[in-house]
What does this fold into?
Amino acid sequence: MIAVLKHGTTPDQVSHLVGWLKRMNLDVHVSEGQEITVLGLIGDTSRVDMDLLKSLEIVETVKRVSEPFKQANRKFHPKDTIIQIGDVRIGGGYFVMIAGPCSVESEEQIIEVARSVKESGAHILRGGAFKPRTSPYAFQGMKGEGIRLLELAKQETGLPIITEIMNINDLPLFENVDVIQVGARNMQNFDLLKELGKTRVPILLKRGLANTLQELLMSAEYIMSEGNEQVILCERGIRTFETYTRNTLDLSAVSALHELSHLPVVVDPSHATGKAKLVPPMAVAAAASGADGIMIEVHNNPACALCDGAQSLTPAQFDDLNHRVQRVREAIL
Amino acid sequence: MIAVLKHGTTPDQVSHLVGWLKRMNLDVHVSEGQEITVLGLIGDTSRVDMDLLKSLEIVETVKRVSEPFKQANRKFHPKDTIIQIGDVRIGGGYFVMIAGPCSVESEEQIIEVARSVKESGAHILRGGAFKPRTSPYAFQGMKGEGIRLLELAKQETGLPIITEIMNINDLPLFENVDVIQVGARNMQNFDLLKELGKTRVPILLKRGLANTLQELLMSAEYIMSEGNEQVILCERGIRTFETYTRNTLDLSAVSALHELSHLPVVVDPSHATGKAKLVPPMAVAAAASGADGIMIEVHNNPACALCDGAQSLTPAQFDDLNHRVQRVREAIL
Amino acid sequence: MIAVLKHGTTPDQVSHLVGWLKRMNLDVHVSEGQEITVLGLIGDTSRVDMDLLKSLEIVETVKRVSEPFKQANRKFHPKDTIIQIGDVRIGGGYFVMIAGPCSVESEEQIIEVARSVKESGAHILRGGAFKPRTSPYAFQGMKGEGIRLLELAKQETGLPIITEIMNINDLPLFENVDVIQVGARNMQNFDLLKELGKTRVPILLKRGLANTLQELLMSAEYIMSEGNEQVILCERGIRTFETYTRNTLDLSAVSALHELSHLPVVVDPSHATGKAKLVPPMAVAAAASGADGIMIEVHNNPACALCDGAQSLTPAQFDDLNHRVQRVREAIL
Amino acid sequence: MIAVLKHGTTPDQVSHLVGWLKRMNLDVHVSEGQEITVLGLIGDTSRVDMDLLKSLEIVETVKRVSEPFKQANRKFHPKDTIIQIGDVRIGGGYFVMIAGPCSVESEEQIIEVARSVKESGAHILRGGAFKPRTSPYAFQGMKGEGIRLLELAKQETGLPIITEIMNINDLPLFENVDVIQVGARNMQNFDLLKELGKTRVPILLKRGLANTLQELLMSAEYIMSEGNEQVILCERGIRTFETYTRNTLDLSAVSALHELSHLPVVVDPSHATGKAKLVPPMAVAAAASGADGIMIEVHNNPACALCDGAQSLTPAQFDDLNHRVQRVREAIL
It folds into this structure.
């Protein structure tokens, strides 16, 4: 970490600051120029509060030279992490299609969707049991019963299952869940992350709507620092001024995260765009950008002719998309 | 709620959609024009998933005519809510200054700050015991011991205390806390909100970094719908492209929230700007904009000469600011 | 256009508003419900100031049913526009690679780059002669001399050339330029757009850093409404809170613009990401998303070993990228 | 300027880079640590392209120690600039109210509004003659005739006038205009700025919707570097994700700009909020934050009962607001 001090800082102020930094067990290397003084901080700077340091009157600027994340950092772990989920692998060249309905609604629904996406080549079944909803009056999901139905669909098809947790006290219900999802709104629910770090279940961690890539990696670090190294990162769109799409899918996050970290990166174009028509081109683009997996909403309700335009694809559309994704993956090898 | 259907929608599609809406217990009033068909939905539309409706192929656009929040809505509760906190009131013309250190660090520190801000006219003491930190390696607060020290400062000075909760399982520790704060990162931690809704303690709810005013009010609604009507809203800056300030303080939120809701609105200029120099002008501007309270970071560590430039004010600066805030409040009466 | 009036609007106010709208040559269809009154405005609503209408006290909400752009609108022009640039075509299945240096620096440089990108399969040569720079003290481009050097490179290689205009008074210098570029900062320089609309030269119009897709199409409309229908839209990243990349490339804009408009859409990953390492994956993703062209910065300065990490690719990197882009384009057919 | 080089940079690479920097007439001070190498660049670094430097492979990070603006910089010009406009002064403790209609519509309208705002205490009359409109089909202003009517109103009332320029070729029409406004969309129309820099007329420069404070000051620098030092900065809201207000008024910009620069700062709450109800509280808050002036839209069309809810205030509302603003200004002295 580098701290540049302002012109006019007195020797007294410098030694005060150096003393304070040394008490944090850092080595401080002072380089005094004519115009400015530069402090090089060596040691475990991940404990230093950059915001505080920056806000000191005598400090011009502070820059980290090393990223504040360690276990998620590719520098200390150059090889891609490969995560095993049942018979499926993700990362390091292994690619997965995750598909299923937004919410689990009934046994019939989830089993039918599960069968159909399996047939089309999906590797993992997704489905929401606990649903984070902006309104307290909206349907909050089938909860425990939803997880039970996902387990049935798993038995029926052999597909591993992924579903979202919102409250650490619900953890016992997730015993047979293969991947636990942390939603965008909980990306910085640090207590939840820490508790999930104590499990040994793979975690799919979604990027928050207003969170930087570094913050996403710091949240992964919360999980990993408790001992659970199986974290899958997920880009699902960020909040911008554009209103045509629900959010703005940041596909450059895929390559950027691969550069910074060894963890697998998955893209969710369904939630990002909020429009079924945009899901296939964005899924194909995600595959081309090097994503390790794609997560797609698929519904299967022939009775509900209305739903065709929603962000969910029909099983037939998913089948077609899956073929195009595979062709693009071959093209970029 | 109004749904405008696309040109070319068939009568069959219309009756399908109307049937689906009626099964949600809504009255549907169909108005067919030459170019478009407009559906008026009457009844409890707070259960309708707007995103789903919007995404249907035949739907051009959907607009809520009534806001989706009810208990927080000024339309149904025209009078300002006044919340009693010990001997202090906030809202409906009652104005409070909330002051204290970012984190509780020691008995000496918190009691000294408490005494000094009380003397300068603060009404409530703030201090962090559980600290949400981006990095798992950073200091996470004194936790239960921090709350105990706040209680000591309360005994010593008579000031009510406010501190942040991050995990509902810690609730028993907050027994003597006068106002429980929900931080920006937990604004949509819906399970936490629901549990706090079951208490009868005033809640200070901070706006999330990327959350709209309507989302903030929906989160207040989560608390209120469980029976706790004592919610104080807090604007603390939103995330934008500007990097000179830590966040961008959205002062128009104060008037906007007062128009939409009867709940008191507090402004936190310390976290929003991240710079001590900007705190006083923004605090004064917040008072001028009609805020019901202002929350200021004040530290008191004569040993730490370094901290003078941080976002915290010294007791002397707070004292001066408090006078200016009072003068501005008189000017706008 | 639909205007929903507030509950409690008096018949007098309604007839006032209807009269005002009719004076704008609109047919107004009034539909009075129990709770709300809906006005359907039929006719040329592109002249109606939505912001003004929305801000009226009695108006709850206003929604356009038809987009405010006409000539750029796919509804009125379902077939893809194909633009001819020398021997090259773009749009409607024709795909172009545009490559060249950020700035024209010397005859040697531009001719060498032109030859090398032509050999690698580029269709159009780009190079900046007038450079929009944040600082008045930074190099502002070779201006007229830069255009002359581009013309030399065109003679030498046969590649059509594209370069940016910043001031309409410079137009005479662009006589032999094949595509005139309007930069992101000038996307809403309406006088410049109108003047370019009077030429018959293809215009590449870049999306502004904070402009919506609809605003981009309205700016295209400014050019088209003056008679120049040859507009190429360009996505080059929008400004968000993320700082890892220079801007956030919004690839969903490609499909969205194709849905809304018949104009060709090009992607510029070099300016969007600002990092050479991210250019190839984003270029490949852009091709997969259905873009009609990609614009890449390529430099060729063997003396400047330093530049290897900049957002520009070397000719060898461009050659490799071009092959991958072609493979991906075949995969998505 | 400080450049931190990456761990592992070879001595050869360092000397290459140092050579390149020295050829830009910079002194380079190299400080090699165990982990990193820091270059201190001394001299006129305003010519250095930070983006290029940052993007070099061997560069970890670059930070400016001195801001890239000079003439607008308070460091080199500590005293507040006071600008004389007719008999009116702005800056350095002099405060102005600027008021008038969005667009000049007729002689009757502009003279009536001018008289009424003068009576209420306004110092300068505003009115749009050239209107930047998103749509080419919307009313574009009365242009030259609009300026003539403003001149009439000036003769009639003695109020200096301010109006927006969009095209440098229109400059001759602005001969009798007291302050020329550059709108948000033209903040980075550098050629326009340079030409205005050659005049000696005060320029009101509005912040672009997605521009940082530093970029605003760099645009002021474009004007000042050509010799025109009379620049008034104007905060008018930035584009964020929030949709309740048209834009988000960034009031912390006032203090921040005052810290960075000696130029006067004006706030425009009418365009920022887009809602008449929010204009008075934001105007009062702007005064409290230390703004040197406030710009308010006032209309005066008794025939148009509809317009009462628009972002414009009535003369009576402006009169009331003006009194409150004056009281707040006295309170913060």
